[in-house]
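Service request form, structural biology core

Requester: graduate student, group of Dr. S.
Request type: structure prediction, single chain
Budget code: on file
Notes: please return the result as structure tokens.

Sequence provided:
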Amino acid sequence: MNDNSHDPFDELMRRALHEEADRIEPADALLEIRNRAHAQRPSSHRPWFLTAGVAAVGTAAAIGAFTVFTNTENTANDGDAVAGQRTTTSALPATQTPTVLTASPMPTQAPRTRGVPETSVRDMVVPVYWLGTQVGAQKKTSARLYRTWAKVSGHPAEQAVRIMTTKNPNDPDYYSVWRGAAVNTVTRDDDEVTVDFKQLPKATLDEDVARVAAQQLVYTVQGALKDDQTPIRVTQNGQAVQQLFGQIDASSPLNRALASDVQALVWIDSPTQDQALTPKVTVQGVAAAFEATVNYQATNLKTREVRKSHTNTKQGQAFSPYSFQLTLSPGPWQISVYLVSPADGTVTDTDSKAILVK
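Core staff response, request fulfilled:
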């Protein structure tokens, strides 16, 4: 429980949880999980519990004029975002195979005018996706998608993209390579959604990071629209865009990639970073865990008290919800949920949150 247990939006989030549960279609990811488990080795970036000494809890970066939800039932109204298994391509156009482009030709097509604006909403909870460094990755540039939640008013997908491109995530482990971009509108018709930008990021990225960064936009827009099927076309001031981040062919609409290709294998949905809680803490999230086993550790950053155990997802070898409860003493705590390799016991994926127990 948290201090907002009587927040009027609790009921909204409960409905969101039930809606998402109806949409989830778990995908069998056993082979990929096994392959990744054998290939990965621990990194020094995210698994804080593997090194000596932990810094005191810091204050989150300023988020800006939107509301980050801190309800412990923040588990999702994101269409099929926790699975994404219906598409078969990664961060690439709907009609093309992977390619690396070396030039950025100036757009020559006429401005696109079709599509209708989104319906305006008030106080709607939308997902916003960020990048995080993958633990145990062999490449230092490897990145994965992590999801947060925000309450917006206006056009939901447009506002979600605006947050993604201009605000700081409240978790210091997350980041966005879309900073500096400026969105115009999000419109849609029967066969595609168009995100039009005033300007796009100018950075040229490593191919793997660029692929996941393109999916950051796709997942955020589709999640806000509760539609994981309609591809996303990117334009700039109404003109066609040839590529993103110097790597991704954007001349055709982008499909949603498989979650197992781009999404972190474990998330903490609640509590959120720097949330103030009562001693009874419920931790909820999503994981694709070998044999459904999710490990966790909670450390009091002041007294060094440690709680360590494991729980299970509802289904193994697939993206599936997990939940567990802790009774913690007052003070600053760090909670980490992680997966380990069945081959050698090394940590392969993790997500962590700093909280304050009152």
